[in-house]
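Support request from a user on the community tier.

User writes: "When I paste my structure tokens into the form, the page sometimes reloads and wipes my input. The last time it worked, I copied everything first. Here is what I submitted, just in case something in the input itself triggers the reload:"
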């Protein structure tokens, strides 16, 4: 075939694209292996495997970094990103080139030894954290947290930033997100949430769900059966997934969309945590399972950002799973598994227990009204830590002060305070704010879904969840990372991210729930 007038031979471009995707597939295979090691580490690996697993994870991280910074990939990009060639590619392939270019630019800024050290330290630190949390021993974990904070500062310096080193870390999880955007956003949310919380607490309606559940023993195997029922109802495909138990629930795309796993944990005296985490992690997993298989083994074959990912988990957990209609259908199902529950609750009182507002020490056990205040605590602490404004050893006390100021509760142990989350042991500083973004996106998406699916609320009340799952698949999941978060939000909802959908949803729901003026 003759060379086009643009100077970009179509046959050469097509062949380069094939070779480029084959190279990217090898990088994804390394990620597949790394994810599998991570899954095993959190679910089945014995304590004796900590050190060799850290070494193996470090080696895989180093190899992946070498692939992503080699002259091979830069040669591919130089060819495909040339304007004459780029405009001949499909929109999806243009997005692929753009995404890889963005990743390579970041990777080239990070020295290989720093990448390997970060992987090794965080792999070991996760097990140190598990023991420290169990033993309420912050001092055992603090040297590792200092190492992780220092590594993240070094990463930020390598990646570059304009105003704050924390911004470089935020950008790893949510594209172009900055603390200059987040600080006023959190301030606005606090101005809505704190007065709402105060009105709820002044209502005189007791949050007594825990007391009502306490006399019943909720067998973990039976909880598992019910959670599997929920997951199947929301469209999670167990042929392409599995549910296990871990200290900190998570979802994991081993080979998206063909192998997407999740974990939950059980409390024998209160089933709400397993229910909420099952729906939450199920939302993540259904997202990954819904990605176009044509994007598999490419960087586009995953969720586009943590904020969008969290929107899917929070939508299922809260907008669906904490709704009154949901429990009209699923309470009788739950009562079949645990008949004793029917002696204490009916569908409405169970909904009230699922949607009660009670400031909690634990983020994962918190309600919709207080959840983002938990995130605010973490945002302010990790931002100050990365900016060098606070010391690791001061974190337990700072944590207690902020929890008391924002939620009116004070941890009496570090296990219920600064040690409660796995994220920092994983090196994930800059991650927490994406949970709040997820809540905001979720409310906006769900508002649009109700307009697009006029029978949505009655479907939920009948236990018919697949129409919502299919709508989410089509509107959000299918495109993977081939569109930016802003593009997805604007295409699906017709406008940019708008926090008023979230604050209106919460205010309307809880004014009615608590009979407020």
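"...and here is what came back when it finally went through:"
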């Amino acid at each position: 075939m003759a060379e086009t007038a643009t100077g970009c031979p179509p046959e050469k471009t097509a062949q380069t694209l094939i070779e480029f995707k084959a190279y990217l597939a090898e990088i994804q295979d390394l990620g597949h292996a790394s994810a599998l090691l991570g899954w095993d580490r959190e679910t089945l690996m014995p304590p004796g495997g900590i050190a060799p697993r850290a070494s193996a994870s470090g080696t895989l991280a180093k190899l992946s970094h070498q692939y992503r910074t080699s002259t091979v990939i830069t040669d591919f990009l130089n060819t495909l990103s040339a304007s004459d060639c780029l405009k001949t590619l499909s929109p999806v392939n243009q997005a692929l080139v753009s995404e890889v270019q963005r990743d390579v630019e970041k990777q080239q800024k990070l020295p290989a030894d720093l990448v390997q050290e970060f992987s090794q330290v965080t792999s070991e630190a996760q097990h140190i954290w598990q023991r420290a949390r169990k033993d309420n021993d912050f001092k055992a974990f603090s040297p590792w947290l200092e190492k992780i904070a220092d590594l993240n500062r070094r990463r930020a310096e390598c990646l570059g930033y304009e105003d704050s080193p924390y911004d470089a870390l935020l950008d790893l999880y949510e594209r172009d997100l900055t603390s200059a955007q987040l600080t006023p956003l959190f301030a606005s949310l606090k101005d809505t949430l704190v007065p709402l919380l105060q009105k709820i607490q002044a209502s005189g309606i007791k949050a007594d769900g825990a007391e009502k559940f306490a006399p019943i023993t909720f067998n973990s195997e039976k909880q598992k059966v019910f959670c599997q029922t929920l997951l199947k109802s929301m469209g999670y495909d167990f042929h392409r997934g599995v549910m296990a138990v871990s200290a900190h629930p998570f979802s994991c795309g081993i080979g998206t969309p063909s192998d997407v796993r999740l974990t939950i944990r059980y409390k024998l005296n209160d089933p709400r945590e397993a229910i909420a985490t099952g729906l939450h992690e199920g939302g993540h997993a259904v997202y990954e399972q819904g990605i176009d298989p044509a994007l598999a083994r490419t960087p586009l074959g995953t969720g586009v950002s943590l904020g969008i990912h969290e929107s899917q988990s929070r939508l299922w957990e809260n907008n669906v799973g904490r709704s009154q209609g949901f429990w009209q259908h699923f309470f009788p199902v739950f009562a079949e598994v645990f008949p004793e529950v029917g002696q204490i609750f009916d569908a409405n009182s169970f909904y009230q227990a699922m949607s009660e507002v009670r400031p909690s020490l634990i983020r994962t056990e918190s309600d919709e009204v207080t959840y983002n205040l938990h995130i605010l605590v973490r945002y302010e602490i990790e931002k100050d830590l990365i900016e060098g404004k606070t010391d690791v050893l001061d974190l337990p006390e700072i944590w207690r002060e902020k929890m008391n100021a924002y939620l009116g509760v004070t941890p009496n142990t570090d296990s219920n305070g600064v040690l409660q989350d796995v994220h920092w042991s994983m090196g994930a500083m800059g991650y927490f704010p994406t949970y709040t973004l997820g809540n905001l996106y979720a409310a906006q998406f769900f508002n649009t879904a109700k307009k697009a699916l006029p029978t949505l609320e009655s479907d939920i009340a009948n236990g018919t969840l697949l129409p919502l799952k299919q709508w989410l698949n089509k509107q959000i999941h299918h495109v993977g990372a081939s569109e930016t978060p802003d593009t997805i939000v604007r295409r699906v909802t017709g406008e940019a991210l708008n926090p008023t959908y979230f604050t209106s949803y919460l205010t309307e729901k809880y004014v009615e729930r608590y009979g407020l003026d």
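Agent notes: The reload is a front-end session timeout and is unrelated to the input. The chain has 22 helices and three strands. Residues 377 and 402 are 6 Å apart (CA to CA). Escalated to web team.
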